[in-house]
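Sequence design from tokenized structure. All designs in this work follow the same two-part layout: the structure record, then the generated sequence. An example of the structure record is given first.
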């Protein structure tokens, strides 16, 4: 936990404008629509005087990239293998906020991920960590496996010092990206990021990028896993972040057979549920196409007549790839 005043991220509006201006945000229209709020906490809530930024570790117990070599299995980003963090973190933030009001008064607002809050720059401004070359927050004490939450308050609390950059000459995260999404250190083109492609992008994905996705069906941890500061990562204390047995390395054939009802039932309480069955099945079919397993052709063929055009396209692509046509 660290604290900063709301006026300490003056560089963010310009950086956001450049990011959106170059189209790096892709289909994430909400980034363009809410730049004013995201770039200035005082625009979001003029009464805020202090921002408490908190980290919640979800450090994986196993090697996070181990399942990427299992051709007939899918790889789910570590954060999405357990309970939906939005619910868990927000409940904890609300508990903290109630305690703060009881102890010191004032008004509060709590945020985690879904609101237009520049959490990573605020985390750096408060001294919680620094934004690494992969654009994620890195801590000398926690590595980079942690969620970020914030409590905005009208109280004037003593601020902490900002954190300095400790990446040095290291470029492990940049070199680890399967799709070359980093146009430069500290600058990402989200349109090439597998996390963006599998979660935010609607419709068909460019064939050149599909082939680089491997078996990643929801998110990507390549750059996070490569960070050497993870040697200082602490164990996750919240057991509900632990990977569910059916998400550690799920079988692609089983996932491809899910209809909408089965998808919703299987991913109840999981962040995966929010992308919907069609987008998820599209990702699964890309993974099948990358599997080099001819026995999965029959599985892909089962989606050739799917109601969703992106799913049908992915099924055709998977069959052609498994047949050696592309």
């Amino acid at each position: 936990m660290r604290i900063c005043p709301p006026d300490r991220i003056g560089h963010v509006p310009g950086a956001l404008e450049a990011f959106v201006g170059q189209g790096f945000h892709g289909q994430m229209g909400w980034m363009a629509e809410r730049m004013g709020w995201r770039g200035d906490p005082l625009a979001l809530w003029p009464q805020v005087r202090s921002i408490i930024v908190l980290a919640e570790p979800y450090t994986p117990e196993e090697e996070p990239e181990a399942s990427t070599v299992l051709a007939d299995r899918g790889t789910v980003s570590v954060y999405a293998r357990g309970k939906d963090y939005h619910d868990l973190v927000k409940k904890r933030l609300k508990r903290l906020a109630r305690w703060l009001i009881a102890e010191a008064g004032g008004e509060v607002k709590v945020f985690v991920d879904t609101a237009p809050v520049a959490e990573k720059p605020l985390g750096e401004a408060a001294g919680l960590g620094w934004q690494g070359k992969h654009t994620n927050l890195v801590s000398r004490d926690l590595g980079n496996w942690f969620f970020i939450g914030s409590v905005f308050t009208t109280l004037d609390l003593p601020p902490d010092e900002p954190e300095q950059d400790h990446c040095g000459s290291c470029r492990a995260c940049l070199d680890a990206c399967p799709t070359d999404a980093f146009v430069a250190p500290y600058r990402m083109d989200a349109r090439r990021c597998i996390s963006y492609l599998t979660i935010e992008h609607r419709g068909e994905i460019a064939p050149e990028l599909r082939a680089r996705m491997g078996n990643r069906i929801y998110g990507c941890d390549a750059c996070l896993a490569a960070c050497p500061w993870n040697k200082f990562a602490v164990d996750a204390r919240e057991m509900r972040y632990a990977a569910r047995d059916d998400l550690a390395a799920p079988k692609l054939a089983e996932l491809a057979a899910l209809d909408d009802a089965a998808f919703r039932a299987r991913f109840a309480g999981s962040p995966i549920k929010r992308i919907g069955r069609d987008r998820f099945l599209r990702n699964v079919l890309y993974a099948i196409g990358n599997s080099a397993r001819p026995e999965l052709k029959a599985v892909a063929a089962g989606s050739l007549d799917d109601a969703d055009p992106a799913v049908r396209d992915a099924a055709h692509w998977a069959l052609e790839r498994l047949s050696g046509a592309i």
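Residues 25 and 190 are 6 Å apart (CA to CA). We note this feature because it recurs in several other targets discussed in the main text.
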